[in-house]
Specification:
Elements: H1 16-34
Length: 65
């Protein structure tokens, strides 16, 4: 079974820009699930089993505390 749409990320009550960003994130999540995102290693001795999250998908918390 192949699920090409992430229904949890799909909503209809968002602005066009927000909708586009959510669709880009949903496509990236699908690529992660399909193994299409290149894995990286955090040290020379370790297996490549980490992925780098693109900057545009990070939530910045600029508040201290």
């Amino acid at each position: 079974m192949h699920l090409p749409i992430n229904m949890r990320l799909r909503t209809t009550d968002q602005s066009g820009e927000t909708n586009e960003r959510m669709e880009a994130f949903a496509r990236w999540i699908l690529q992660v699930g399909e193994g299409a995102v290149q894995a990286i290693s955090i040290s020379k001795d370790r297996e490549s089993n980490w992925i780098k999250i693109p900057h545009e998908f990070l939530i910045n918390n600029d508040e201290d505390g």
